[in-house]
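Task card 7
Instruction: Convert sequence to structure tokens.
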Amino acid sequence: MMKNGFFKKIFSVSAVAALFLAASSAKADTLEFSAIELQALSTVEPLNLINWKVGDTMSYNLSMLFGKGSMVKTVSKEEGNAVWLHQDISIMGQKQTADVLFDRADGKILKMLQNGKEMEIPNDKIEVISQDYAEITVPAGKFQSIHIVAKSAKVSKIEMWANPTQTAIDGALKQIMATQFGDMTIELTSFKRN
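Output:
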């Protein structure tokens, strides 16, 4: 089974995508979010080593009170000892892209782009409340996972089920986040690991 310490650090990437969607609940008419909103969930201790490969991809269904959508995360390119993660988000007919540059050595976010425009990287610390193991079924299949419950100053409750050893990138299988309009749920539909 997976080591506990590794999973206390797993939020770094999934959280960025999830935060896009949490922010969209407050601004459903325009998909423009602040850097703080985009980054708030990505500051739990990052992965000690990122070993993602260009072309690794994870696809998700999204659901919120006001609609359904999709998200695709793809490792798009390497830059020195860093790697770019590209995210395409579509919900209620609106589209948004995010690109995040991660340092492979320590998982730190080096740069963030939203729809091609550079954004400031804020610092919203996440507090892990609990962690345990659970089996979970999502559209992509049945997986053993680590289940993490956390919160931040911006998000009152975050739940994530992950298994990066059997999937790709950060291994996020499912996330549920509290928003001002109810819970936002993200579920893995497919993945590709190079």
